[in-house]
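[09:14] KT: can someone run the structure on this one? pasting the chain below
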Amino acid sequence: MQKRLKAIGKFLSSMRFGILLLVVLALTCVVGSLISQGHPMDWYLQRYPERTAALIYGLRLDDVFHSTWFLVLAVILCGNLLLCNLLHLPGLLQRFRDAADPLKTPKTARITAGVADFPEAVFEKIRMPKPKTIDAEGGKRLFSVKNRIGLWGAWVCHLGILLLIIGFTMGQVTTEEYTVYGVPGQTKPVGDTGYTVTIDDFGVQRSENDTVQQYTTLLTMRDGKTGAQQSASASVNHPAGLYGYRIYQNSVGPAAKVTVTRDGKTAQEEYVCVGDYLYVLNTPLMLYFVQYEDAYYDAGSGKTLPGYAYSTYYMGEQERAGVQVEGDTALTYGSVEISFSDPREYTLLQVKADHFSWLVLLGGVILLIGLALAFFLPMTRVWAVQEADGRWTVSAESRNAGPLFAEQFREAAGIPEAPEETNGKAGEPDA
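[09:31] RB: done, structure tokens below
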């Protein structure tokens, strides 16, 4: 039983298990990008077969990154990487110390050869530090080592990946995300944060051939508690940063002014965006703005005019649907009249706050450092042991740069033939 538990623990802390978890999480992220997130069940029922929609909702594939099973997998992966790093740390520290000890040669040498003469200038030719000269038992010994720090490459990479996953997971759990949309002049709340966003202006930059080049919103964010405010601009791929939030220019669309009159006097007036609704005079009557067409053919007048498609709901039940052309009244309820006018574009802003983005950035930097250590700073060691007959037995190893280093070493040391790759102990002369 104890052996079985030990084997299970060894597997759970192994890189094989870690890679398996990484593959599962990567596939999960793909699913999360293919399935639109954060919609109600009805939305999925309209777009998928009933069983598929039920499966999406049941497995929380509609909100993958906040699902319990995704967080559990992420925590297990973090535990696996942490165990890997902790278990390998003592051995790595020992190898790091041994790498600087000229008397501790590796069990196998990448390059082993015997030469008649081995001057210290060889170390300089192969860009090694000045060698240490040691009078050891059995003869004189020269030793040089460089890039010991490269031994830490894989360990540092694991640490970077661990921080990336922790930062990403915590960011998904704690992230704040809100949608704010409206037309210039409107002030909208940012969820329940206590902040508001005023849309000061919105513009569309076009080229000479009238193609859209950029959307830009000028906005002011106000702290409801202190009254302080900050202003900035947000455009596509250039978000604004205010009060710890990133504000992205996400989308645009048509909006129109809805005017409600009672007995000929204006009782309610505000801009409504396509896809949004308005409760009329705080009654159960709801007006839903379906679509705007700037060239709608009106059969009654025989003209092409701007048209506003709408639906009305009373107590949650659809009452009527229609299109109001420019200049007409959309609806009449006794002395109450409702009409659309002044079409314009609204801007949709995405307001986000990721409190762990710094940890993701730190993890990415550490991962890059680890890759640089592993691939660009391979540890290299060279020994030269003078035998009793005056000849030298030279041994060398270079992690991740064997063939190239072997050629440089052979040329610098004056070895006529390619050094033999051996499985013998370093320092043993070739037969």
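[09:33] KT: thanks! The chain has nine helices and 19 strands.
[09:34] RB: yep, looked fine to me
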